[in-house]
Amino acid sequence: MCAEQQHLIVSEKGLGKRTEAKEYREQKRAGTGVIAMKLTKRTGDIVGVVSVEEDKDLMSLTSAGKMIRVDMKSIRKAGRNTSGVKVVTLDGDDKVVSIAKCPKDKEENLEEESESNE
């Protein structure tokens, strides 16, 4: 695990952001909570949070059944109380229903390795 652990938060309308874990304070019993993402009609509710691993991709599943793969490096870092940036482009009333980390494509890794060897 790296020294700068980050969390990736994605909302149901396709907005997401990377935030450093140290920005969140520790809570005890009967705490008032911590704002993880500024929620509006534009963002919708939070779908999920995953820890960022630079060597993995983010896989998003929509309510229409589309699976979308995004490189975690391409998602911008943002503060704790912000809405984030568009991670997934959705059609009409489609919503993100689930997110997960997945390994990168073997073809992409082979291309990166061949480029670094040249």
Task: Please provide a brief summary of the model.
This protein is mainly β and 118 residues long.
Portion in beta strands: 25-35%
CATH class: Mainly Beta
Summed over residues and divided by their number, the pLDDT gives a mean of: 85
* Name given to the CATH architecture: 6 Propeller
Q: Return the CATH topology.
A: Neuraminidase
Instruction: Write down the overall geometry.
Output: globular
- In the sheet with the most strands, the strands line up as 3-1-2-6
Protein structure class: mainly beta
Q: By CATH's scheme, which homologous superfamily applies?
A: DNA gyrase/topoisomerase IV, subunit A, C-terminal
Backbone CA Rg: 16 Å
Q: Helicity, in percent? A: 10-25%
Q: Give the terminus-to-terminus CA distance.
A: 30 Å
Q: What number of structural domains do the residues give? A: 1
Instruction: Give the oligomeric state.
Output: single chain
Walkthrough of the structure:
With 118 residues, the protein is mainly beta. It has one domain: DNA gyrase/topoisomerase IV, subunit A, C-terminal (Neuraminidase, 6 Propeller). Helices cover 10% and strands 34% of the residues. The protein contains one helix and seven strands. A four-stranded antiparallel β-sheet has the order 3-1-2-6, with no helix packed on it. A three-stranded antiparallel β-sheet has the order 5-4-7, with no helix packed on it. A hairpin with a 4-residue loop joins strand 4 and strand 5. The longest helix has 12 residues. The protein is globular and about 45 Å long. The model has no long low-confidence stretch (mean pLDDT 85).
